[in-house]
Design a protein that fits this description.
Length: about 160
């Protein structure tokens, strides 16, 4: 069985940890221009939605070219700040369980196929130089690293004292 980079375990553990957080604590911002826990998790929802499409399309293509998106605008337009914390968590959990399943079901030869054409220099968390070949496997691992990074930010924001 293929690895899913522990995304399922990471998701379920974070969900359980964050479920006890009160809504008003999740909306606190560390600074005026910084995201709250709600907004960070909203960004992770947007990332899951965008990357799900990228991962599916990559399985039908010889390239890894995905559409970018304005992260700040997506968070603002969807107004995660005013949403219920538990609704945000449930949506994020379900999307990432689906992402885990998608990764797990991706055939090894599709994951490991080198792609010359890509734009991971623009859309990956840890970018890949434009002239360097890469794989869908790398992009999937990058997604998990991105999730873990932002979950760390959520933990930091939630552990702060009253703002």
């Amino acid at each position: 069985m293929k690895t899913d980079y522990n995304l399922r375990e990471i998701t379920l553990a974070a969900f359980e940890q964050f479920l006890t957080v009160e809504d008003n604590d999740a909306e606190k911002k560390p600074a005026y221009d910084k995201w709250s826990a709600k907004q960070i998790m909203g960004h992770l929802i947007d990332s899951a939605i965008n990357n799900q499409g990228r991962f599916v399309k990559a399985q039908q293509s010889d390239s890894l070219i995905g559409e970018g998106y304005d992260q700040e605008a997506w968070v603002e337009v969807q107004n995660y700040q005013s949403m219920n914390w538990h609704d945000i968590l449930i949506l994020w959990r379900q999307l990432n369980l689906h992402m885990s399943s998608l990764m797990e079901q991706t055939p090894d030869d599709v994951r490991s196929k080198e792609r010359i054409q890509h734009n991971l220099h623009e859309i990956a968390f840890y970018t890949v130089q434009q002239n360097q070949p890469t794989t869908l496997d790398y992009f999937m691992q990058d997604y998990v690293v991105h999730v873990k990074h932002h979950l760390g930010q959520v933990r930091d924001v939630l552990s702060m004292d009253d703002v």
